[in-house]
């Protein structure tokens, strides 16, 4: 058997490059309120989509599409869908948390210059996809990898991204005219930012705190401390 793939030598990044990668990871934030109105230059937006498109995907399925939403009419419908779902969401929290929940801004749909829905086409690649034979949801996981690639690239570009998931699926599908085999994985608000929260806003607002990583690591079997 011949190996027709070509390999290139690799080593670790320079310290500066490596630090930049970790800086993007640790200083990336979910953005809801800091969007500036400035448009995003096409070359920057192209790089963000390129980053998303270079994500790993099961069987190299590349199940994503990028729905770029700029039309104010569509945005208005999306915002109304969010508002309805967010009222339903608030009602699900206990009385003690509801006031704080309602006080936290959870989207920047109308303020962000670009809204982007990253979808997953569950039929792409046909009925049998390498790596997906025993776990059908791996196409959804692949799409989430694309979202994260974009989110980190955006941090490096000084662009803020906010993920909005408080929607009834049916609303999003109807507004965006999605076919049945396409899943709206992530609805993202994207725009320039001058500032980012130093820590997750939900932590700063007292909603949740970052878990100690040592409490999350098990050895060999579930629950077994290393
Ligand atoms: C799948 C998914 C869905 C959502 C989110 C994230 C992810 C991964 N997040 C953002 C989330 O609140 C945020 O990532 C955490 O609070 C951690 O903060 P940083 O991302 O580090 O700023 C989010 N934020 C928000 O304001 N409205 C939302 O509907 C959602 N939905």
UniProtKB/TrEMBL annotation:
GO MF entry, a single one: 5,6-dimethylbenzimidazole synthase activity
GO biological processes: cobalamin biosynthetic process
Catalytic activity: FMNH2 + O2 = dialurate + 5,6-dimethylbenzimidazole + D-erythrose 4-phosphate + H(+)
EC number: 1.13.11.79
UniProt keyword list: Cobalamin biosynthesis, Flavoprotein, FMN, NAD, NADP, Nucleotide-binding, Oxidoreductase
Transmembrane segments: none
Enzyme class: oxidoreductase
Superkingdom field: Bacteria
Domain Nitroreductase: 25-192
Family: Belongs to the BluB family.
Subunit structure: Homooctamer.
Entry protein name: 5,6-dimethylbenzimidazole synthase
